[in-house]
Specification:
It is built from 7 helices and 7 strands, in the order H-E-H-E-H-E-H-E-H-E-H-E-H-E. Strand 1, helix 2 (about 45-50) and strand 2 form a beta-alpha-beta unit. It has helices spanning about 25-30, 45-50, 65-80, 90-95, 125-135, 150-160, 185-195, and strands spanning about 35-40, 55-60, 85, 105-110, 135-145, 165-170, 200-205. It has one domain: Rossmann fold. It is α/β, with parallel strands linked by helices and about 210 residues long. It has a 7-stranded mixed β-sheet, sandwiched between helices. Helix content is about 30%, strand content about 20%. The protein binds S-adenosylmethionine. S-adenosylmethionine binds near residues 90 and 185.
């Protein structure tokens, strides 16, 4: 059971104040391209990535309340203005709050791997999910996925080749273990310190 912390932060949008799909320019006060990170954890990746791209608006979502709180605190320390945080499940968020073809990029870093074979169907990222999430990417929009889990990385790399309407930005590699311009999240750093390799996958919607 999650301990529910009251999040009182200008970065946080409580569930009842999340906008309708067309409402994001009013939230940010401009209509810059919109980017989403699913499962932002403590927000270290989004803080660095948003700082690199002041010309884009970022929505960091996680259904982990404490993670949303940590993310908001971190964003405050970095004095960023182009990020908002929401505590919500990813598919519900897309369906209720995002315009179709409205995103310039989707980032998913180290999603829960569900390592036991009988639990694998609980994984967030599978072909059906990517086809659905892809409907929220604008043409030219980027899909980034990273995991430390060999089986998850190979599985996503394999099915992505067959998802229509996407090109592999890392071709001829199906995945890479290094992405020099990509910030490392807390979990990536933890797993790398344990000697594990990260699988980075990057596709673009055509
Ligand atoms: C293993 S953590 C990784 C956190 C961070 N991305 C990192 O790399 O450090 C996975 C995060 O994804 C969140 N998460 C998993 N499935 C989700 C979903 N369907 N919708 C929203 N958040 C989700 C979890 O609450 C958790 O905070």
């Amino acid at each position: 059971m999650q301990r529910m912390i009251e999040i009182d932060s200008p970065f946080f949008i409580p569930p009842e104040r999340l906008p309708l799909p067309a409402g994001w320019p009013a939230v940010f006060g401009n209509d810059r391209p919109l980017v989403m990170e699913i499962g932002c954890g403590i927000g270290d990746f989004i803080a660095r990535t948003a700082a690199d791209h002041p010309d884009r608006n970022f929505i960091a979502i996680d259904y982990y309340n404490k993670g949303c709180d940590s993310t908001c605190r971190r964003l405050g320390r970095h004095a960023l203005t182009n990020v908002r945080v929401a505590r919500i499940e990813a598919r519900q968020f897309m369906a209720e709050h995002l315009p179709k073809e409205g995103l310039a990029a989707i980032y998913i870093n180290c999603p829960d791997p569900w390592p036991k074979k009988r639990h694998r169907k609980r994984r967030l990222v599978n072909r059906q999910f990517v086809e659905y999430a892809g409907t929220y990417l604008a043409p030219g929009g980027d899909f980034y996925f990273a995991t430390d889990f060999d089986d998850y990385g190979r599985d996503v790399a394999a099915f992505m080749q067959a998802v229509p309407g996407f090109v592999n930005c890392l071709a001829p590699d199906a995945y890479r273990h290094e992405m020099p311009d990509y910030h490392l999240s807390k979990y990536m750093q933890k797993f790398m310190a344990e000697g594990k390799s990260i699988y980075f996958i990057h596709y673009r919607k055509v």
